Amino acid sequence: MLKISSLNLNGIRAAHRHGFTDWVDQTDPDIICLQELRAMEHQVPGPINKLDYHEYYHTAEKKGYSGVGILSKKEPLQVEKGIGVDWIDSEGRVMKAEFDDLIVFSIYAPSGTTGDERQDLKMEFLDHFLPFAQKYLSGDKPVVFCGDYNICHKPIDIHNPKRNKNSSGFLPEEREWVTRLLETGFEDVYRRLHEGEPDLYSWWSYRAASKDRNKGWRIDYHITCPKMLDAAQEAIIEMEWDLSDHAPVTISYGL
């Protein structure tokens, strides 16, 4: 069994204060994909825990911003940072770890909530990411792209679809992009294991007791090749942990 967790930290230093190492100790994932480090590598608190994970980070050039990481019990064969697009790579948004029989990515798509300029860059990121990801579908090793895509795909994935129909993260063009991603052969594993189940979210605003009332958005995914879906046995959103404004999305694969 291979247990993979994905978590947007909303700052790795803050997440440590909120019990990140306790979560790692108690849940014991084999691989952890992290997003929104909001720290330079030397600022990452350590060590992660007594299990002695191998730690890899791709931080943004801008201080206190973005950044992704991958922690794994097993040492990867290789780690690659970025996708070859300067502005995306300088923001620390895509990281790959290749193992003997699996490729894992940590992905942090831009948010478009701060205005039109960032929304345009978000769509540009998605345009670059889709062909980049597709190359791995036909590869020799199964692949999983874990991370915060900052998009709810269907009305079931957001607590108030009517009110949010013009909100970044639920715009028609963003949702259509997820549809295209899945139509090319990728799988949204969490949803496939929870078909038709409402009120399953991975992010909640800090405002208005949103998490207590479960008024959330499902924007964190394991996007995988079909083989990984076939191997998926359990998919959970670990709402009981308050590590950040996101909850860990953890899937156990029979590999």
Automatic annotation (TrEMBL):
Cofactor remark from the record: Probably binds two magnesium or manganese ions per subunit.
Residues carrying the site annotation Interaction with DNA substrate: H246
**PROSITE patterns found in the cross-reference section:** AP_NUCLEASE_F1_4
- EC? 3.1.11.2
Q: Where is this site: Important for catalytic activity?
A: D220
The annotated active site, in chain numbering, is Y108, D148 (proton donor/acceptor), H246 (proton acceptor)
User: What's the superkingdom here?
Assistant: Bacteria
Single GO biological process annotation from the record: base-excision repair
In Gene Ontology terms, what is one molecular function of this protein? metal ion binding
Q: Does the keyword GTP-binding apply?
A: no
Its keywords, alphabetically, are: Hydrolase, Magnesium, Manganese, Metal-binding
* Domain (Endonuclease/exonuclease/phosphatase) ranges: 6-246
**Annotated site (Transition state stabilizer):** N150
Which InterPro entries would you find in this protein's record?
Answer: AP_endonuc_1, Endo/exonu/phosph_ase_sf, Endo/exonuclease/phosphatase
Q: Which cofactor does it need?
A: Mg(2+); Mn(2+)
Q: Which protein family is it in?
A: Belongs to the DNA repair enzymes AP/ExoA family.
Q: Please give the name of this protein.
A: Exodeoxyribonuclease III
